[in-house]
Amino acid sequence: MRLAVAIAAVVGGLCWIVAAWVGVLFWVGAVLLTVAVLAAGAALVSRTATWLRAVVAVCFLALVASVLGVLRDNVDHAVLLVAAGLVAVAVGAPAVVRTRRAEGEAGGSRRPERGQRAQRGPRAPGAHAA
């Protein structure tokens, strides 16, 4: 899920950068960036409180939208699209790399298939529960 959100941030940011010249991509980028911002807001809260994650995600989206609204009044529209797109790419690209690297490292430690026991490595000296 994290990889999909990071990719949504990168693609949405690239859409907004290009939308400065091709207006059609504005809405595609807006949808992708909305998904990324909602996921980022939900990630700020512990997974145990689902209702709180939803509230924080919506409030975080409202905060980002209000900041963009204030900037839209003071900055040229094309400059704002490019700047916001660059920020989204700058935040999303390292997340894509980190997530892919973490998935590559965890590739060898998968869960056992149903009906099979987990492989256990050698235990440290003095370890209990053999």
Structure commentary:
- The chain has 130 residues and is mostly helical.
- The protein has one domain.
- The chain is 69% helix and 0% strand.
- It contains four helices and no strands.
- The chain has helices spanning 2-19, 25-42, 50-74, 77-105.
- Helix 1 (2-19) runs antiparallel to helix 2, helix 1 runs antiparallel to helix 4 (77-105) and helix 2 (25-42) crosses helix 3 (50-74).
Give a brief rundown of this model:
Helices cover 69% and strands 0% of the residues. It has 130 residues and is mostly helical.
Detail the topology: elements first, then pairings.
Layout: H1 2-19, H2 25-42, H3 50-74, H4 77-105
Write out key terms for the chains shown.
130 residues; mainly alpha
Oligomeric grouping of the chains: single chain
Q: What separation lies between the terminal Cα atoms?
A: 36 Å
Taken from the alpha-carbon principal axes, the silhouette is elongated
Number of DSSP helical runs: 4
* Percentage of residues in DSSP E strands: under 5%
Q: Percent range for helical residues?
A: 55-70%
Order of helices and strands: HHHH
The mean pLDDT is 87
The class by helix and strand makeup works out as mainly alpha
In total, the number of strands is 0
Number of domains: 1
Alpha carbon gyration radius: 21 Å
Which residues sit in consecutive blocks of at least 5 with pLDDT less than 50? none
Taking the sheet with the most strands, its summary is: none
